[in-house]
Automatic annotation (TrEMBL):
Protein name: ACAD9/ACADV-like C-terminal domain-containing protein
InterPro entries, per database record: ACAD9/ACADV-like_C
Molecular function in Gene Ontology: oxidoreductase activity
Keyword field: Oxidoreductase, Transit peptide
Domain of life: Eukaryota
Domain ACAD9/ACADV-like C-terminal: 5-101
Length: 111
């Protein structure tokens, strides 16, 4: 995944902060997954009480992490199609210019 992104963007990857954020989220999920699986594996191998429950928990977390990683990957791959970076840039510039939340209260009278 990261190789494809580097091939696509090259040196300008540093300006694609949302893509880098997505890659960081994927790396975090993988790290969590490795830690959970390592703990469950050790508990099972040395015969810790309730190791079978740890295996079920690890399986659940692994399935959740897989879905989240797939979702993050799809967001990264499709980021140019849905123009996510441009939308986030417009929103962030508006927040910066207004020095805070820029939307009016919907209950405010306009007449």
């Amino acid at each position: 995944m990261s190789i494809l992104i580097l091939e696509r963007y090259g040196a300008e990857i540093s300006s694609k902060q949302m893509i880098m954020h997505g890659l960081a989220d994927i790396a975090t999920e993988i790290y969590v997954l490795v830690a959970v699986l390592a703990r469950a594996s050790r508990s099972y191998c040395i015969g810790v009480r309730n190791a079978d429950l740890e295996r079920y928990i690890a399986t659940f977390i692994a399935q959740r992490a897989r879905r989240k990683i797939e979702m993050l990957e799809a967001d990264i791959v499709n980021s140019e199609l849905n123009n996510r970076d441009a939308v986030i840039k417009v929103i962030s510039q508006a927040v910066f210019q207004k020095k805070g939340y820029m939307c009016e209260n919907p209950l405010t009278r306009t007449f």
